[in-house]
Amino acid sequence: MESILKFQKKRNYQIITPCCGKSNKDGKFVNYEGFAEQFGYCHSCGKTTLPDYGQLTDYEQIGIISNKQGKSLQLETSSKAVKQRFIQEKIIWNYFQLKPENNLIRYLKRTYNSNNVNETLERYAVGSCRDGGTVFWMINENQQVQKCKVAFYDQNGKRTNKFKVPYKNEDGYCYCLFGAHLLIDLNKSRYIVILVESEKTAIVGDILLPQFTWLAYGGLNGLTDDKVACLKGHKVLLIPDISNQAITAGHKKVEKLKEIGVNINLWDMRNGKSDEELKNKGIYNNDLEDYFRAFN
Predict the structure, then answer these.
(1) I want to staple 140 with a disulfide (CB 3.0 to 4.6 A). Which of 87, 98, 166, 176 is the partner?
(2) What pLDDT was estimated at residue 235?
(3) Which residue has the higher pLDDT, 74 or 272?
(4) Of 152, 8, 133, 3, which is closest to residue 72 (Cα–Cα)?
(5) Tens digits of per-residue pLDDT, 201-260?
(6) Which residue in 41, 95, 44, 38 sits closest to 66, CA to CA?
(7) Are residues 236 and 280 in the same domain?
(8) What is the SS3 assignment for 23?
(9) What is the total count of domains within the chain?
(10) By the 8 A CB rule, do 105 and 207 touch?
(11) Taking the mean position of all CA atoms in its chain, how far away is CA 144?
(12) How far is 95 from 204, CA to CA, in rounded Å?
């Protein structure tokens, strides 16, 4: 079953945008049909705000969400008070061994050292689907598989605007930080955990700089209390994407994480540049993997 997100024809100019926290007088925030007024797409910051993956697709058919306007979806999800269920570990290795390899894996092997790539793919248990999707498993710090996300990439390694989420939040399959199973409690204050937005960036980081532990949070609004609890006591470096809005939101998250006992700092990759200057240089909203690719 395919779910298409459609814009409402009339815009609500009276609301405060949920992503930017600003007045919608300019009409840049547009609601999606069939959702409450706080859910929609923001043309200002480029983010989509939606209530829950489980409300968007028929997971029995593993639906694909696509945005008719061609925008890449960055979803802000809300968790539900349900008892966490777990996926059998043997399932992940079925997808790990599946051939042919997907576009992302082929891109990684063309671009980086293939031996390092193979080690990283096994460490994160990255798999393939028969339709070419890349399977990212969310495995918690206790080595339990909580959820998975399937993303699709072009041959150049760029993510497309469709994905699958086969297990519902409402059925007890909730997110944890991608890579959380690599956290080590022993001497945890002596090594550095790096938090990036996308799973792909975490994987590339592990390929190039394996001395760090790389985790992905799926967007700043994905740093919920239940997901970050595993970071308490760890030394963490948060690296948001390159934009004023992302950095500002990142600093707010840093303060909250410090309050719960996370030893965290933020790396601002803007180098003092405004959004306009970043756009002129063609690096607005880029992430760390874009830098890795440029200098590889």
Answers:
(1) 176
(2) 93
(3) 272
(4) 152
(5) 999 999 999 999 999 998 767 788 888 999 999 999 999 888 888 888 889 889 989 999
(6) 41
(7) yes
(8) strand
(9) 3
(10) no
(11) 19
(12) 20
